[in-house]
Each structure stands twice: as C-alpha cells, then as structure tokens.
C-alpha cells in the first residue's frame, strides 16, 4: 500500500502575529514555522499503517523552499519519500493548492491520501475534499478512527448525535481530526537519518491563478479592561446583575 501525506507549513501557534503596514499580509520577520498541528495526526496514522501493514509513506508540500523543513521533519518521523511542489509565491487559495497536488500525484498510484482536517491559521478545511473531487476519489473527512483492510477503508467521524461510519474502496482521501491518535516526536536517530535523505522537487505544471484575494488584514480590537466588583457577596451579585441588565443588555 502506498500512502501520501500532504503537509502545510504554518506559523507556530505561540507566535505573536504582526501585520505589515499596508495591511495586506503578515509580517513574517520573527515567525517560527511548524507543521500544521492537524497534519501531525495524518503523519502519525501513516506511520502506524507502515508499522502494521508495511505501507510505503510519502509526504508532499506545496510552496517555496521554506516548506522543505516540514518535509524533513516528516522524514525524521519515518516517511520514506518527500516530494516538494515548488511554487514561487505563497499559496493561500485551497483550490490552487489542490490543483497543484492533483497535477503532481495523479499518476503516482497512491492508495491512501491523508490530510489534516484543516490548516492551522487558514481553517478552510477544503484542500483534501477538493483534491478528492479533482481526482474522482472517495473521501471521508474529520475522521477520528480509521481502519484499512483488503483495499477498503472504514472511517468514523464525530457528529452531533454520535459517530458516523463511512466505508469505501481505495484509493481514497481521508482528512484527520484530533482524537485519531497521539502524534509522536522524531528521535535523534531519525533526525540524523533525515538529513541524508533527498527531497524530490516537482516543478508546478502550470501557474494557477488564485480565485481568492486578500483585501485587508486587521488584528482583533483590544478587549476592554475588566472591572472588579466590591462589597458583600449580595452587593456584588446585585451589581453584576445590574451591569448585565443595563450595560450588556443581556436581560
């Protein structure tokens, strides 16, 4: 079985976000870049299938040379092959990313394509489903349990009333959710071995024109300072009720 895991490089969730003066893009000067947290569940699931079923695991990322860092990290975790779809510009449009991926892997014969449910920071949750549509593959999204057996998949996803079970034939696209597994960390041996592995660069077949355009970026407005209530517990309760009724207009 051949598995492909698609990766996205995102700012560390602890990074303090700054916006350029023109308000059109983020200031990336002090940003630390990491693998999107949801993609870590996809990598871990691929590693487990490699260990239990002898799968061959490839990883892929779209973007400039900076994204090679997340590919190298996946190699350190045990991936067998790393593919880099080289693009000169950033790719924020999910359809553009899905199209680049579809062109790159269409004839590579993957049985299972794993994605994080969404990219941290973008939250479009669209690249995986779009790729499935472009390639005409079955798909299961926001999956918390996955079973692969004899060319078929059984996926479970959480819904409001419980669990929904989806079954289908491979090849298929599956997007992963928190709860599917507990991602591992690379060890020193894996990190050293990854430094010697080749990252295969695939030139993008065509220049995709994005459908989405950023008009303006702005930080959330600062939160108002809190107010401390004084007096007896009864007086505090009355003051809180009055504030909720007269100021917040909740009652």
**Gap from first CA to last CA:** 60 Å
Q: Strand order of the main beta sheet, please?
A: 9-8-7-10-6-1-4-5-11
What is the count of β-strands?
Answer: 11
Return the CATH class of the largest domain. Answer: Alpha Beta
Average pLDDT, rounded to a whole number, is 89
Query: Largest beta sheet, briefly?
Result: 9 strands, mixed
Report the portion of residues in β strands: 25-35%
Structure annotation, total helices? 6
The figure for the number of domains is 2
* Broad shape: globular
Gyration radius (Cα, Å) is 22 Å
What is the CATH topology classification name of the largest domain? Rossmann fold
| Main structural class | alpha/beta
Proper CATH architecture of the largest domain: 3-Layer(aba) Sandwich
- Helical amount: 25-40%
Could you name the CATH homologous superfamily of the largest domain? HUPs
The unreliable regions are none
Q: What letter string, H or E per element, gives the SSE order? A: EEEHEHEHEHEEEEHEH
What does this structure look like?
The chain is an alpha/beta fold. The protein folds into two domains: 202 residues, 3-Layer(aba) Sandwich (Rossmann fold); 26 residues, no CATH class. It contains six helices and eleven strands. It has a nine-stranded mixed beta sheet, sandwiched between helices. It has a two-stranded antiparallel sheet with strand order 2-3. The longest helix has 17 residues.
């Amino acid at each position: 079985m051949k598995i492909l895991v698609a990766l996205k490089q995102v700012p560390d969730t602890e990074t303090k976000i700054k916006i350029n003066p023109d308000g059109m893009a983020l200031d990336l000067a002090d940003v630390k870049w990491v693998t999107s947290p949801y993609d870590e569940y996809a990598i871990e699931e691929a590693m487990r299938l490699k260990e239990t079923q002898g799968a061959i695991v490839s990883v892929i990322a779209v973007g400039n040379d900076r994204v090679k860092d997340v590919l190298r990290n996946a190699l350190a975790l045990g991936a067998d092959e790393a593919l880099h779809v080289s693009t000169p510009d950033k790719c924020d449009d999910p359809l553009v990313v899905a199209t680049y991926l579809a062109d790159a892997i269409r004839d590579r014969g993957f049985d299972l394509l794993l994605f994080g449910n969404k990219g941290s920071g973008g939250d479009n949750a669209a690249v995986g489903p779009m790729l499935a549509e472009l390639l005409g593959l079955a798909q299961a999204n926001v999956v918390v349990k996955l079973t692969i057996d004899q060319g078929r998949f059984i996926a479970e996803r959480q819904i409001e009333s419980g669990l929904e079970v989806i079954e289908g034939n491979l090849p298929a696209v599956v997007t992963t959710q928190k709860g599917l597994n507990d991602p591992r960390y690379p060890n020193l041996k894996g990190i050293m071995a990854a430094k010697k592995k080749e990252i295969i660069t695939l030139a993008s077949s065509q220049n995709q024109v994005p459908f989405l355009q950023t008009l303006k970026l702005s930080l959330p407005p600062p939160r108002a300072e809190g107010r401390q209530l004084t007096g007896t517990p009864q007086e505090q309760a009355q003051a809180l009720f009055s504030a909720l009724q007269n100021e917040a207009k909740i009652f």
